[in-house]
Amino acid sequence: MTDARAIRMREEMLSELTEDILPFWMDRMKDERNGGFAARITGKGVKDECAEKGAILNARILWTFSAAYRVLGKQEYLETATRAKREIIDRFHDKTYGGIYWSLTPDGRPSDRKKQIYAIGFAIYGLSEYCRATGDAEALEYAAKLYHDIEDHSFDHERNGYLEAFAEDWSPLQDMRLSEKDINECKTMNTHLHILEPYTALYRVWKDEGLRERLENLIRLFTEKIMSPETGHLRLFFDENWVSSHDIISYGHDIEASWLIHEAASVLEDPELMSATAPAIKTIAEAASEGYVPGGGMIYEFHGDTGAIDADRHWWVQAETVVGYFNLWQLAGREDALEKACGCWEFIKRHIIDRENGEWFWSLRADGTANTDDDKAGFWKCPYHNSRMCLEIIERASV
User: Fold this and answer.
1) Closest to 263 (Cα-Cα) out of 358, 199, 311
2) What is the band of 399 on the pLDDT scale with cuts at 50, 70, 90?
3) What pLDDT is attached to residue 1?
């Protein structure tokens, strides 16, 4: 499916990716003293030499530059991806208990040794994409090891789904939260989404039957447990029995999940599953539209129990909005979906891309000012959402 607007967006995103995003991470984020990558650049552009190095940041760098090399074929992207691969395998991987450390000291020693399943999922995601791009056997070996770590320790055989986090030796943790802003529940939408995502990537390069079963199960968990049948939104936090007592809507996760569920079902190449899943994909994307402001991007969250609205436009939410609505246009031929994708890209160009200092602002605040208090690069501010948006549109809009 081609459209002049889509082709123009592809050209602009190719430029944004290759002239802004990727050079920023290649040129400014190498750690020449300790190896690997720097841990943080503040929103004011200052490199923080004392910050801990996060597993999520390094795994997302690995995915980004592996995917960029696969799509665009530039050697410097492969070199950066390989640097990230060595960080994940040589430093973040726990050789004793398995899994991935949550963080390292600035000089590369284990710091926070907990096993957050979300982070392990991203390591699988990055390693799988590296294997897809290069055929590298070592990357596949470690991706499969980490998959088995999740299945052996996190999967709830009695009630289904995956538990959030464990101590270094896989013993239980009292505080399983992914971040301080999260609710301390044992199962979350966010972690399940970022197990679905790497399992999809791993299945592309490793057609294991057990993995296939788990990926199909994850798709069904989203359509049968996580998506609210009343609202179409994804519920965020659950107890061990899949009971959710929290009324919070994350519009960015809604729209992101809509296309990631579609991608997972497509990779399995099961027409019956695809047919059964398509209505939920459309429903979730439609529900996300409640947070979309024409000309103003996608707002962040709504708290139904208090009525509070977080109307900041976070960088990652805008990137996923573009891909999610572009996917809905391709899936259902919805002209309004393409208009939303194009409209959000225009919003990104006007307000989220930092034309002076490179890369993207963390967010545009609800009052219309750029957020330079939060990181430009760091534990959570990574190249994956905006690079993936560009790569998705580059591939989807190819003529």
Assistant:
1) 199
2) low
3) 54
Is the distance from CB of 120 to CB of 57 less than 8 angstroms?
no
Q: What share of the chain is helix, strand, coil (3-state, %, to 5)?
A: 55, 10, 35
pLDDT tens figures, 360-387: 999 999 999 999 999 999 999 999 999 9
Tokens linked to 109: 């020693």
- Secondary structure of residue 278 in the 3-state scheme: helix
Structure tokens belonging to residue 69:
């090399």
DSSP labels for 323-381?
HHHHHHHHHH--HHHHHHHHHHHHHIIIIIB-TTTSSB-SEE-TTS-B--SS-SBSSS-
As a whole number of angstroms, the distance between CA 237 and CA 239 comes to: 7
Q: How many CB atoms lie within 10 A of CB 15?
A: 11
Are the beta carbons of 354 and 376 closer than 8 angstroms? yes
Assess contact for 125 and 201: CB atoms under 8 A: yes
Q: How far apart are CA 141 and CA 83, in angstroms?
A: 17
In the numeric block, which tokens belong to residue 72? 């665009």
Helix ranges, 45-136 (H): 55-72, 75-86, 117-134
Give the residue among 332, 288, 370 at the shortest CA–CA distance from 43: 370
Q: Which two tokens mark 1?
A: 């499916």
368 exposure class (CB count in 10 Å sphere: 0-12, 13-18, 19+): exposed
**CB-CB contact of 297 with 342 (8 Å):** no
Tokens linked to 287: 């529900």
